[in-house]
Structures are given as C-alpha cells and as structure tokens.
Amino acid sequence: MRAVDCVGALIQDAEHRVYLQRRTADRRLLPGIWDIVGGHLEAGETPEQALAREVEEETGWKVRDIVRTVADWEWEWEGRVRREVDYLVTVDGDLTRPRLEAGKHDASAWAGPGDLDLLMENRTDGDRRLRDLVAHVVRTRFTDRLRLEPITGPNGVLPGHGPDLMRLYADPWVARWYDMTPAQAADQVPALQAGWDRDGAGKWIAYDRSTDELAGRGGLSRIAAGTPVAESIAALAGSHWTGLELGWALTESARGRGLATEIGRAGLDYAFTTLNATSVIAFTEQVNTASQSVMKRLGMQYAGQIHAEGWAADTPDVQPNAPFAVYVMNPAVRAQEVDEVVDNAVRWAEDRPDLRGLAMVGSWARGAARMTSDVDLVVLTDSPRTYLENDDWLATFGAVAVVRRQQWGPHLTEIRIQRASGLEVEIGITATAWAATEPVDPGTRRVVTDGVRVLHDPEQFLAALVRACGGPEADI
C-alpha cells in the first residue's frame, strides 16, 4: 500500500456535528467549496502528527482525542494519486470561535444531518465522496458498547455494509424472524441508504466497540403513510405520530447482553434530539416476548394490537394475519410520568420526620433530560439503614424491580429501580453529612453543580449546600 499523503480531521462537537470550513475562491485546488480540516504530511511526520498540526494551524484548537480512523482512501488531482486517512477527533478550545487560516478559508460552519448539502456547493465536479463521508460521521452513534454506523453502499471512500447485512440475515436467530436470502439482504442496502437521505434517519449496523465484531442492526425507519399497517398503528398511536418506527435485530451471539436496549436508546435519542420527533412506535409479533421486554425497558408504553403478516403462536409458518403488539414513546407522556414521580416523592418525604431533605439532581433537574434519561433523586436522612435494609418503601416510587445497588463515596448508596413503564429512578440514600458545607465534599459538589432542584428542605440543609457550591438560591 502506498504511503499516506494527507490527513483529514472530522472534528465533532457534543451534538454530533462535524466542523466544516470554506476554501477561499482563489484557491487553485477546489476553490469555494466546503471542506474538512486537513492537509499534506510534512517530511518526517506521522499521520497523527500531521493531524495535530493541521488542526491547530487551521482552527487554533488542539486535538484532544482520536476517536477512530474513519476512512483510508485515494483520490486523484491533475494526474497525481493521493492516499488520505481521515480521523474522527475531539478537540480542546472554544468551538464557537475557530481561528480561520488567513488566505485559505473564509467561513466556517458546524454541519448536522440537515446541513450536508453545504458540501456540494460550488462542487463543479459533482463528487459526493466527501459529502457521504461527513454524512456517515454525523449519523454514526456510539453507545457504551456499540458503534452504530448508518447502512450505506460503497461510495469510493467507505466499503459499504452489504456483506455485513448478508451475514446478519444468515444468522440463525435473525433468520428465525426474517425470511430473507443473502441476495435479498444485499438488495436492501440502496433503499436503506436512500431512507437516510430522504427521512434524515434510518437503520444502523451495530459493531462491538471492543472487538469490531458484527452485533446486529437497528435504529429508525419511517413507515409509509396510507399503508394498512401505518393506518392501524396510527389509530393506536394518535395523530401526533409521523411514521417513525424503532427496531433492532441482533446476532445470536450478541443476545442476552442488553445490546438491543442500547440500540433502542440510541434510536430514541436520535428521534427526539436530532429529529425533534413527537412520538416513536415499535411493534413486534405478540409471540416475540423478548423484543417486547426491550420496549418496556426503554420506557415505551403498550398501545394495543394490530394484525399483519408475521409469526403467530402454535403455527410453523408465517401467517397473513398474525397479532402484533404496538408500543409508543411520547415525550409528553414521559414528562407527565416524571412529574408524578416527583409529586409522590415529595408527599412521601413530608410524611417522614427522619427525612431531612429531598432533591432532584442530574439532567431532569437542569432541564436537559432526554426521553431515555432516568430520574435522579437524593434523600437526606438521619437513619440510612432504615432504607437500605428494607425495600418496602420503594413502592412509593412505583418500583417493579431493583436494577442496581451501588455505593458512591463514604455517604451515598444508590438504589436504581425500574417502573412498569420502563422509566428508571435512581435514589441516592445518604446521611446528612453528604450535605456538609464546611467543607463541601468534592463528589457532592460535582452532583450539585451538575444540576439540582430542591424538593423538600425543612431545615434548609440543601439550600445552604447550593449556596456553598456557588449556585442560585434553592428552588423550594
């Protein structure tokens, strides 16, 4: 393989957008087009060294982390072939104020899924490869254990996902639910790629981040309006549903590890955060109890039953009118449920004289919650053992299962519960020493400064703690 000639930096922000800059109109190579950061290696440089240098020269930022190598490809200009390696990176610096390199770039932008056409402006050669590379990155998501790549075909930069899709549908467990030949699986790729461009969302191929092994596929799709299935679902989901459906399929070796839930959470987050969706549905055969369990863990609520072609109980073949369970996720319903949890918690605290304080912390407290976010509460009490040695009180919070118990620091023990809807509530039980202000414990300070809403504070312990952490007056 030829040596690397140049590198590209796909700089990504917290919203998954990629940084672009426009080449000045008098540049000899590709004038006036939007481009990613990058350039040629200098003598003696490694690609990684060139990457760090180019990022600092062109933006003033410093590379913090090379997340992964995204592409290794070749392109030709004026008869010379160049090998380029592009990296997904994060950077340190003020992302709102890039320092454009004088004479080379005259504008900058952060491109999300709706901004990809920028990369075709003034592109007289019609080359879509850079556009498709950026599209791949802004649509890719990472969970704790998975890398989720948008399903596409080969485009001259990336190899495409046809072979992996064929492998997936040949897996014994997947084949149990999807009667599809390898050729049919490969034929799906153009339609899946077109769905991403048409709808701004689509299905991902899932890879294990630690091994790069194929784990499955999942994500969103939009059910065409007017079909019998769409009309049946709309009758259950309501007029606010715009056709978005969440789904997943895992290889047999990936099952039983909670990976479907990770894919589902990523899909819901994409729907509500990136697409600003009003609701999302998921549906599966009534006999597929495993997928229904995932839907419940995601916090989706059972909406009812429809009939369509699929598997049914006690039948060896696909049936034309099999029963399907439909589940729905609606932000308004989730917010209402969180309000219910908080109201019940406050009434419970007010009736217990040994409770010295109750606060909501985390994303719901600071107004940044997503529909897959859990509710985080901190309970100050004179007698933590009362709550750590007996679980009867968890019924107040709607617990149907205890998900986890974990000790954090010397004072706080977390009890994470799940409600029937799938919403998880994390309750931190702690002695009043957790709220001490002289000095404030560093762990406590991190929790408070990350967002706090005081719910019950009869002796002003929490109000004093908020002030000591430099925050506003307690919201009582």
Description:
The protein is an alpha+beta fold and 476 residues long. It has 3 domains: 6-138, Nucleoside Triphosphate Pyrophosphohydrolase (Alpha-Beta Complex), CATH 3.90.79.10; 141-329, Aminopeptidase (3-Layer(aba) Sandwich), CATH 3.40.630; 333-468, Beta Polymerase, domain 2 (2-Layer Sandwich), CATH 3.30.460.10. The protein is 28% helix and 33% strand. The protein is built from 12 helices and 21 strands. Helix 3 (162-170) packs across helix 5. The longest helix has 20 residues, at 331-350. This is GNAT family N-acetyltransferase. Keywords: Hydrolase. It comes from Kribbella speibonae.
Please write out the topology.
Elements lengths: L5 E6 L6 E6 L10 E2 L1 E4 L6 H13 L2 E16 L2 E13 L12 E7 L17 H11 L1 E2 L3 E5 L11 H9 L1 H6 L4 H18 L3 E6 L5 E9 L5 H10 L6 E7 L8 H16 L5 E6 L3 H9 L3 E10 L8 E11 L1 H20 L4 E7 L13 E7 L2 H5 L10 E10 L3 E8 L4 E8 L10 H8 L2 E5 L4 H8 L8
Parallel strand pairs: 1-6, 17-20
Antiparallel strand pairs: 1-4, 2-3, 2-7, 5-6, 8-9, 9-10, 10-11, 11-12, 13-15, 14-15, 16-17, 16-21, 18-19, 19-20
Helix pairs in contact: 3-5
